[in-house]
Amino acid sequence: MKTLRRTRGLTMMEVLFAIFVMLIGLVGVLAALPTGISSAQWVIFQDASINLSASKFSEIRRDRINPSAIDGSYEPLNGSSGGWHDFAHGPGDTYENFDDIAQYEWKVDETRSTGIGSAAGGPNGYMAPAKGAAQAGLMQVTLAIHRKGTSRSFRFTQFMLPYE
Q: Please, are residues 85 and 108 in contact by the beta-carbon 8 Å criterion?
């Protein structure tokens, strides 16, 4: 009588089970991709907004623009509803080397006098320098950065002295 020897190898059931486990893993990885891509885009927008707001605040200080008086004469409005401005991005302009600058817009969202004059202490003991009787004190200026075509925007606030 012949005895059957078991041969080495995998049965069909083992192969099907391995394929099933592998497919579950692949579906899990593919399901996580859209969330990862969305998070990466949000981080890129956040980083760009931080840099653009710092640049815009620096421009306002450099050009000695009174933030409460910014309107279409400082930089023209871009036609979006809500009073948004485009960042200048032509040759020789401040943002000419910024990637995709045309997709961002900005506006001064709020300007509020904090009531801190030259004789009163401000945040962290800050003393506004005396500039005469016309000194109105610090202003809290909020700048909004928006990405066109989305509902995403960030708001940044700084304390600034008004310019005469």
A: no
* Domain presence at residue 79: yes
Sign of CA dihedral 36, 101, 75, 50: positive
- Burial code (b: 16+ CB inside 10 Å, e: under 16) for 71-101 equals eeeebeebeeeeebbbbeeeeeebbeebeeb
Phi, psi torsion values for 137, nearest 5 degrees: 95, -175
Model confidence over 85-121: pLDDT tens digits?
A: 888 766 677 787 888 888 899 988 777 776 654 444 4
**Cβ atoms of residues 138 and 157 within 8 Å:** no
Can you tell me the distance from the alpha carbon of 87 to that of 75, in angstroms, rounded to the nearest whole number?
A: 9
* Domains of the chain: total: 1
Question: Does the reported pTM lie above 0.85?
Answer: no
- Has residue 47 been placed in a domain? yes
In 3-state terms the chain splits into helix, strand, coil percentages (rounded to 5) of 35, 20, 45
User: Does any domain span residue 69?
Assistant: yes
- The answer to whether 101 and 89 are in contact (CB under 8 A) is yes
3 state SS of 21: helix
